[in-house]
Specification:
This protein has 192 residues and is of the alpha+beta class. The chain is built from five helices and seven strands; from the N terminus they run H-H-E-E-E-E-E-E-E-H-H-H. The chain has two domains: 3-39 and 123-175, no CATH class; 44-120, no CATH class. Helix content is 36%, strand content 22%. It starts with a helix and ends in a 17-residue tail after the last helix.
């Protein structure tokens, strides 16, 4: 479902065809903030970046969509994360997370490639034709999230309970699909 389709569906469900599109766009951005909290560790939000060191100072800029670091590594192995309060001379191979940058030790040379597995923020629906994995595969969750926020926005208390319950139910179903369980099972075979 594209953003424009989501806007049209929300206006239809709300029976408010004249609701300003900018207002619905605001509700979409609000619910995307909730998705970024609720679905942060969903496997579809895990990305791998290949990051070349820009200089010899050990400062590695992070991609803008990093919500949390899973693993930092290169061909020699994994870098361990250290707290920023640690003495710098005590770090043999690791990094300090300084918000939008990482300080990597020992300082790799410029051009050295470091790989980053990370939890990414959900791609926001900015343009009318924009989609993301959630709007493509679970557009119902997007729609009920927008409807829930719209009920708060227009002060429709009776509908708020309905939209919130349906949103929570569908989001819980997505989160419980067995992702990230790291459990393999063999096929079950019936014996006659």
């Amino acid at each position: 479902m594209t953003k424009s389709e989501l806007v049209k569906a929300a206006k239809t469900y709300l029976n408010r065809p004249n609701m300003p599109t900018d207002d619905v766009n605001l509700l979409i951005s609000i619910i995307e903030g909730e998705f970024n909290k609720e679905l942060r560790e969903h496997p579809r939000n895990v990305k791998r970046g290949s990051l070349p060191m820009p200089d010899d100072l050990g400062i590695l800029p992070l991609p803008d969509d990093v919500a949390g670091i899973v693993r930092l590594f290169d061909d020699a192995g994994i870098y361990e994360q250290y707290p920023v309060s640690v003495a710098l001379d005590s770090i043999s191979r690791g990094y300090l997370d300084r918000g939008s940058i990482l300080e990597v030790f020992p300082h790799p040379e410029a051009g050295h490639t470091i790989y980053l597995d990370y939890h990414a923020y959900l791609d926001s629906l900015d343009g009318d034709d924009d989609t993301n994995w959630l709007s493509n595969y679970h557009s119902d969750i997007y729609l009920y999230g927008v409807l829930k926020e719209a009920a708060v926005y227009v002060k429709d208390d009776p509908r708020l309970a309905v939209w919130r319950q349906e949103f929570d139910r569908r989001l819980a179903a997505l989160k419980s699909q067995g992702w990230n369980q790291n459990i393999a099972s063999s096929p079950k075979v019936r014996v006659r």
